[in-house]
Amino acid sequence: MELGVAGVRQDLVDTAGEHHIAAEEQRHRRAAHISTIAYPALRVHGPRGGPVGRGPADREVRRMRRAETSQSPLRPRDLEEAGARLSEQADRLRSQLALAEEAASALRADCDLDAADAGAKAMTLRELRTRTEMDTALLERTVAALDRLRAGSFGICAECGRPQGRERALALPHAELCVQCAEEREAGPGG
């Protein structure tokens, strides 16, 4: 089967057009790659056209974007609300600790009638002691948060000095660290 002149010409045009399109796509990919090296935040697609987000640099860019959007400053009303919540919690914890101390004193003063009573009393005292230790630790963190509020450093990371973000500061008023520093501390050295 023989192609006429028109058929050969059309084949040449198609081939030339495909080469032109391929070269154009290659130029676009090269330009996109170079721009993402210079400006990683501009990367929209990975090298194969898929979504970005697998490498450490990509995670860092996403973390920075999240931090920028969540670090809206605390308003005076937010600070008042946090202070009221923290003061209320501190008062409640102090009264719980006082009640726990009274209960522990009453249990220690109570006489044991038999071994079962002694075992139950020892178990109750252990539970009270555990609960008291947890409440004491929470009270210390609450008082520290109130101190940061008075000093004007509430909502600021104690480690890196960056804002924790409005949402984090209001949701976890005891938190001393921003999300990134808390994650790094939890991961430990080399993690």
TrEMBL record:
Keywords: Coiled coil, Metal-binding, Zinc, Zinc-finger. Pfam families: zf-dskA_traR. Residues 152-186 form the Zinc finger DksA/TraR C4-type domain. Residues 83-110 form a coiled coil. Residues 43-80 are annotated as: Disordered. PROSITE patterns: ZF_DKSA_2. A zinc finger (dksA C4-type) spans 157-181. InterPro entries: Znf_DskA_TraR. The keyword Lyase does not apply. One of its GO terms (molecular function) is zinc ion binding. This is Zinc finger DksA/TraR C4-type domain-containing protein. It comes from Streptomyces malaysiensis.
